[in-house]
Design brief:
19 helices, Beta-Lactamase, 605 residues, elongated, Heat Shock Protein 90, alpha+beta, Helix Hairpins, 3 domains, 5-stranded antiparallel beta sheet
Length: 605
């Protein structure tokens, strides 16, 4: 027995077949029992209806005899009906319980106990026999001494009008029940039919279970067990190191998907083994290459630090050079006024021009390197555009350039330092006009765009120039990098614009499709007054920024509800890691889930 159980435990087919067989047995058994019980009840109901009809027939047959008080006629009718098959006896009681008529002559004249089944139906309430003797109380089943099932049916004989008005009748009209007709019937035929039904049902159930079991075994064998056996053999070979194994895909169902997954896994394993072999063979080369990459990365970091140091030194030098340069420029202008002509005046004008150029460079260097105290106020972007266009209107007219301003929908006001924003936009306008020396159209567009689950207000400047080469596009925002000719510009305009827009919590984006002009977009983060009035991030996160001014946070005090795009994970501008460092990932931040997940702007990703 233990060996058999162990073999079954190790065999999937055996467990499946046993489980299905048990489920079939339980299901078929329940169905058979329910079917047999329902069938027997139906047969019993039909039998009782038939017996009730027979009892009514007896009552109608003896009705005339009772009106004429013809006892011999009534007895003949009872004897005739009682001789029928399966009718074991018929008797009639009067209202006192005396047997007046019976198919068994020795019973005539006998009194019946009022506690018997024939009397309890009426005598529980003698005044209302028709109401108390309901259909389910008219019959009872019992076993006789030989163990046969007998059904006794009682039917009251009422005192109708024809009886109470007959000349020969002795019963007054107010008497409701004259007597009771009791009939005994054998249930042997019914039991025989039920036994036959049980045998037929059991045989059919057994045949059905055998057929279903064979069918399920064939289906499992064909579509499950055989493919799994093949797959198991292939997996054993893979375990021995034979990685190149392919099994047939028997069908497009889950088994087929399992086979496809196995084939894909073996291919990946073979590829991985080949890669591992290749990596092992070229490990030394990989180490050398990685070492070289690390050296280059270190050199880039050193170069970046040098540039940072050079930037600080340049700012200091610019401060020192500016005063002497102003003196030189002043003396050159005075000398130019004193001279009336000749080479000396020409030289003085050259000095003045170069001094002006140097002052412009120093001004841009100081603007780029100094820290500016920003004053943010709610401003409409259209006002910023109007100020910038007015400032450069005369220059655009001289160059034959038309400036067009478009608005894409309703644009809300945003937090802006007006002076700095005008300077940033002015740099883009000047660059656009420089890109079109032969004239053209400079388009300035203002609108809104959903990005990173908030709304941005953008100002886009598009020119019709030659565009920016694709290989130079990543470097255009670096200080002193310029695509213009030497002597035109300082290479700091875009760097200053980028610095200004990032101080606003936004970012700048440059695009230059092949064969078209360049487009520069300034993105300002926007939040409504209703959003800004809600719980700010520093209150929810309890970082203490609102109580301790030394805790610097680029999101405080205006951008508390959009900190993830100003200083966190989704920030596309200046690297400001306060909240990103605090939460590591904004998508795991409690404040992010409280605000960003409640209502995302339409079209956000």
């Amino acid at each position: 027995m233990d060996n058999l159980l162990q073999r079954i435990n190790r065999s999937l087919p055996a467990k499946l077949i046993i489980t299905i067989a048990l489920l079939l047995i339980v299901g078929v058994a329940i169905s058979c029992v329910t079917l047999i019980i329902n069938g027997r009840n139906t047969l019993m109901r039909y039998t009782v209806d038939h017996i009730a009809s027979s009892s009514e027939l007896v009552k109608r047959s003896i009705h005339y005899g009772m009106l004429t008080f013809d006892r011999e006629s009534i007895q003949r009718i009872i004897d005739s009906i009682a001789s029928k098959e399966n009718i074991l006896g018929i008797r009639i009681f009067d209202s006192r319980g005396e047997i007046f008529f019976s198919s068994s002559s020795e019973e005539i004249g006998r009194l019946v106990d009022r506690s018997s089944f024939a009397c309890t139906g009426c005598h529980s309430d003698p005044e209302k026999p028709s109401a108390t003797l309901t259909a389910d109380k008219q019959w009872v089943i019992y076993e006789d001494r030989q163990g046969n099932d007998i059904l006794t049916f009682v039917d009251p004989i009422f005192n109708d009008v024809s009886c109470s008005t007959a000349d020969c009748h002795v019963h007054p009209p107010e008497q409701r029940v004259l007597g009771v007709l009791e009939s005994d019937f054998s249930l042997a035929p019914l039991n025989e039919v039920v036994r036959s039904q049980i045998v037929d049902t059991v045989v059919f159930a057994l045949l059905f279970m055998v057929f279903i079991s064979l069918l399920l075994y064939f289906v499992l064998r064909r579509f499950v067990l055989n493919p799994l056996t093949v797959l198991a053999g292939a997996m054993r070979r893979v375990g021995r190191g034979e990685l190149i194994q392919t099994v047939p895909v028997p069908s497009p169902d889950e088994i087929g998907l399992l086979a496809e997954t196995f084939n894909e896994m073996t291919r990946e394993l073979e590829i991985a083994r080949e890669k591992e072999k290749t990596w092992t063979e070229t490990l030394e080369e990989e180490v050398e290459r990685k070492t070289e990459e690390l050296k280059k990365s270190r050199d880039r970091l050193i170069h970046a630090e040098k540039l940072a140091s050079l930037g600080r030194l340049t700012a200091d030098v610019a401060h020192e050079v500016r005063n002497p340069l102003m003196s030189i420029g002043g003396f050159a202008r005075r000398l130019n006024k004193c001279l009336t002509g000749g080479r000396e005046k020409q030289y003085a004008e050259i000095i003045i021009g170069q001094v002006d150029r140097l002052e412009s460079i120093l001004r841009d260097v100081l603007t780029f390197s100094r820290g500016v105290q920003y004053r943010f106020e709610k401003r409409h972007p259209e006002k910023i555009i109007a100020t910038a266009v007015e400032r450069y209107k005369h220059l655009s007219t001289e160059l034959g350039i038309t400036i067009r301003v478009r608005s894409e929908g309703s644009v809300p006001p945003v937090l802006i330092d007006e002076e700095q924003a005008v300077e940033a936009l002015g740099n883009l306008v000047v660059n656009g006009m420089d890109a079109m020396p032969g004239g053209g159209v400079l388009t300035i567009t203002v609108g809104t765009e959903p990005l990173n689950m908030i709304t941005y207000v953008y100002i886009r400047v598009e020119d019709q120039g030659q565009g920016i080469p694709e290989d130079e596009l990543p470097y255009i925002f670096e200080p002193f990098f310029s695509t213009k000719e030497i002597g035109h510009g300082t290479g700091l305009g875009l760097s200053i614009t980028r610095k200004i827009i990032e101080e606003h919590g936004g970012f700048i984006k440059a695009e230059s499709p092949p064969g078209k002009g360049a487009a520069f977009s300034l993105y300002f983060p926007y939040q409504s007054d209703e959003e800004a009035a809600k719980t700010p991030c520093w209150e929810l996160m309890q970082c203490g920024r609102d109580r301790d001014a030394s805790l610097k946070c680029p999101a405080y005090p205006h951008f508390g509800r959009i900190c993830w795009v100003v200083a966190g994970t989704f920030c596309e501008g200046k690297i400001q890691g306060t909240f990103a460092q605090k939460s590591e990932d904004c998508q795991r931040c409690r404040f992010f889930h409280l605000v960003a997940k409640k209502k995302r702007p339409a079209g956000s990703s």
